[in-house]
């Protein structure tokens, strides 16, 4: 079962609790500190383009990369409505290619956790370093082991909306550091008719130390880590960590 096929259609409905605008303001503040207030910025794992659109509204020349055609179709619809000049590319983030370098690369909503092999994570970081301008900035977030182990655990989550509903069955394998959730969706199509979709999502838990090590090994320089989208340092109970790294030679 492929991820983000049936889910793409209702992704924004179930992600309406994500404060994309506030996160974009936070990212913009970090970039402006690095004197990046314009120019090319890549949204890696852009999904339906919510963050891409927010950053485009600040005047950045945005590129969005995602490997889900269904998600990019929705992103393209948003682009048509907003009028923003965004380039969307259907690519796997493990092998993405750009026409040149960019001033910054961002990746939000725990896209990085979907990379379950450490060598593939390092490959992505090497590509990021390769496509950043000299001294360019990489900002990304990831879910912590604490979140998988203590919050999501072996829980079942269900939510019903007027036009769709879902059942999320979560399982965290502590020994392997892998979090799997089986997603069952019921999406309304016509009248009282609902179509059922099933997807399996797999994410890996990484520690802050592992992320720092992969950043350094890829050629980038670790700059900072924060407790989610705040100015505070991460703690043992941080559920999401934001990291910033800098291009440091090819």
TrEMBL record:
It holds the Pfam family Methyltransf_25. One of its GO terms (biological process) is methylation. Keywords: Methyltransferase, Transferase. Residues 41-136 form the Methyltransferase domain. The keyword Ion transport does not apply. One of its GO terms (molecular function) is methyltransferase activity. This is Methyltransferase.
């Amino acid at each position: 079962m492929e991820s983000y096929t049936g889910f793409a259609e209702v992704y924004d409905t179930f992600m309406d609790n994500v404060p994309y605008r506030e996160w974009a303001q936070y990212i913009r503040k970090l970039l402006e500190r690095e004197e990046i207030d314009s120019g090319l910025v890549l949204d890696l794992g852009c999904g339906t383009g919510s963050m891409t659109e927010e950053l485009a509204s600040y005047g950045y020349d945005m590129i969005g990369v995602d490997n889900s055609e269904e998600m990019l179709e929705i992103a393209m619809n948003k682009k048509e409505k907003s009028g923003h000049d965004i380039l969307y590319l259907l690519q796997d983030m493990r092998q993405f290619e750009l026409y040149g370098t960019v001033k910054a690369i961002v990746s939000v909503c725990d896209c990085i956790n979907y990379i379950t092999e450490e060598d593939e994570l390092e490959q992505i970081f090497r590509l990021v370093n390769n496509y950043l301008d000299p001294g360019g900035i990489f900002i990304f977030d990831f879910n912590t082991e604490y979140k998988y182990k203590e919050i999501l655990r072996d829980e079942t989550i269900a939510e019903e909306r007027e036009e769709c509903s879902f059942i999320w069955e979560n399982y965290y394998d502590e020994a392997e550091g892998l979090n799997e959730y089986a997603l069952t969706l019921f999406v309304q199509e016509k009248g009282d008719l609902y179509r059922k979709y099933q997807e399996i999502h797999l994410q890996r838990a990484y520690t802050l130390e592992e992320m720092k090590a992969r950043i350094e090994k890829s050629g980038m320089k670790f700059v900072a880590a924060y407790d989610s989208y705040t100015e505070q340092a991460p703690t043992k109970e941080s559920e999401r960590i934001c990291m910033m790294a800098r291009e440091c030679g090819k």
